[in-house]
Design a protein that fits this description.
Elements: H1 13-23, E1 29-33, H2 40-48, H3 57-60, H4 62-66, E2 77-84, E3 111-114, H5 124-142, E4 148-151, H6 159-165, E5 170-171, E6 177-178, E7 186-193, H7 213-217, E8 223-225, E9 228-229, H8 235-241, H9 248-254, E10 257-259, H10 263-266, H11 269-279, E11 308-309, H12 310-314, H13 318-325, H14 334-349, H15 355-361, H16 367-380, H17 384-393, H18 397-409
Parallel strand pairs: 3-10
Antiparallel strand pairs: 1-2, 2-7, 3-11, 4-7, 5-6, 8-9
Helix pairs in contact: 1-5, 14-16, 15-16, 16-18, 17-18
């Protein structure tokens, strides 16, 4: 009887993992070798150009991005999977409604949009990690000497590059992984392992052609070049990761995006094709290794998030915000970030229904919120006295600058 080498898996392990992944709700499944990804050499100039904005962890962990072995010692292979989220059309808010928090009957509601991936009740990390753990346990049972580690965008790993190596799709001009059958409405997850698994056929060609819909549709001109995102101008970065005031020149472009942005996905023809394909009886394409499974119930849209009422949101204190969002992706920017965003959305809407809640927030303890609120009230108009009164007691330099700009040059100066 011969013993198997420690890094050699049983012949049926990949088939077993593929079936288990399907049962767990994953869709696409592929295997990539644990090598330095080709895209790593583009990461360095991207950082040097300033496109990483305040995300210093890219530079701090640069060596790890080059070597998957720094994420899992002795890694030889990566199992790359996709986990779908809701891709249905957005709900269009009614033109008139009786909204909470001070909106008058018959007035249009003040609403904001949330990126599709955050529509549900749970944080996707909390959903996917336990499923990766199940796959890891399968590997360890089959090969007791093997090690594995699951990653969901929280480790220095270039998931999109490895997804291409695993044959799951190509990098679109919007920088996202695109798949001909599935579009891009999915999360990427990786399971690194010390096992040497047979690699999938890598995706080496793209299918965007001459299309530039995503580049043309971006309201803040966040694409420095096809496939190159300048995070400093990206709505998703600004509303989720950015911790300071959103630059004035970009606020109008934020529109009504409260958290994240889907514009470059919504205009993509491949997502249009995928929606039709997934809605047809023939959706289980023969060339798709896994899926498509139904969307995880925890990721299905909650009515109160598509769209989300801003007046109620602007009225939340710290405890209320925690109770409502602690288990969801909206927790990441914390209350100060979300209310900053909500104020900007309200200012862009120029809807007077938001004004009472905004006026109350002029006295909030967070300077970030007070500054955004002052700008929003200037855009809405009609509250010069409240803004001027705040200036008398305001001590934060940035907030004072926001107020002085509004009083001197904003819409308020015409009232």
């Amino acid at each position: 009887m011969t013993s198997r080498a420690p890094n050699r898996p049983p012949a049926d392990l990949v088939e077993t993992l593929t079936k288990q992944a399907r049962d767990l709700g994953f869709d696409l499944f592929g295997i990539a070798p644990a090598v330095t990804p080709e895209g790593f050499h583009r990461l360095i100039p991207w950082i040097e150009a300033g496109y990483a904005a305040e995300m210093a962890y890219f530079q701090d962990r640069l060596a790890a991005y080059a070597d998957p072995g720094q994420v899992l010692a002795d890694a030889r292979s990566l199992i790359v999977l996709t986990y779908p989220y809701a891709n249905r059309p957005r709900t269009v808010p009614p033109e008139s409604d009786i909204s909470g928090g001070g909106t008058e009957p018959g007035a249009p509601p003040v609403t904001g949009r949330i990126a599709r991936y955050a529509w549900g009740a749970a944080d996707y990390h909390d959903l996917i990690h336990p499923k990766l753990k199940r796959l890891r346990e399968t590997i360890r049972r089959a090969c007791p000497g093997a090690n594995a580690r699951g990653v969901v965008d929280s480790a220095p790993l270039m998931e999109r590059e490895f997804a291409q190596l695993a044959g799951l799709g190509w990098a679109g001009k919007n920088s996202l992984l695109l798949n001909r059958q599935r579009g891009s409405y999915f999360f990427l997850a990786c399971l690194l392992t010390t096992l040497e698994l047979p690699p999938s056929q890598a995706q080496t060609t793209g299918h965007c052609g001459t299309c530039t819909r995503c580049l043309d549709a971006c309201p803040t001109a966040a694409f420095a070049a096809p496939g190159v995102v300048d995070s400093r101008r990206c709505i998703s970065y600004l509303t989720i990761e950015h911790r300071g005031p959103i630059p004035r020149e970009l606020r109008a472009g934020i529109g009504d995006w409260l958290f994240g942005c889907d514009i470059c996905q919504e205009v993509c023809p491949w997502n249009e094709h995928a929606a039709k394909r997934l809605g047809a009886a023939s959706a289980n394409a023969a060339d798709s290794p896994v899926g498509p499974p139904p969307t995880d119930p925890e990721l299905l849209p909650r009515p109160e998030r598509d769209p989300i009422e801003l007046v109620d949101l602007l009225s939340l204190d710290e405890a209320g915000f925690r109770d409502r969002f602690r288990a969801s992706p909206l927790w990441r920017p914390r209350r100060r970030g979300i209310l900053r965003n909500a104020a900007i959305c309200a200012g862009n809407a120029r809807n007077p229904a938001a004004a009472p809640a905004l006026v109350r927030l002029l006295d909030d303890t967070e300077p970030l919120i007070r500054g955004a609120v002052a700008w929003a009230l200037g855009e809405i108009g009609g509250h010069r006295e409240a803004i001027a009164s705040r200036l008398l007691v305001e001590t934060d330099p940035q907030v004072r600058h926001e107020i002085e700009t509004v009083l001197g040059h904003g819409a308020e100066s015409a009232t």
